[in-house]
User: Fold this.
Amino acid sequence: MVYEGKQWFRSLRFRDRLRSEPDVRAAYQALKLELAASAATRGDYTAGKTAFIDSICAAACRRNV
Assistant:
């Protein structure tokens, strides 16, 4: 990850949403627990989180967070 690159800022937006919104944090935790129990590989686990993370980051961008 490049310091102050696109992915760096995206990660910070995601982190900030998790810190500031308990409902988002709880939904992410539930998703991770579900994937931990059902994903066959680490790649499947990571891929399973992608849509959720993308939606949170997109919403943060729209809100200019």
Remarks:
- Residues 6-63 form one domain.
- The mean pLDDT is 90.
- Residues 42-63 form the longest helix (22 residues).
- Residues 11 and 40 are 25 Å apart (CA to CA).
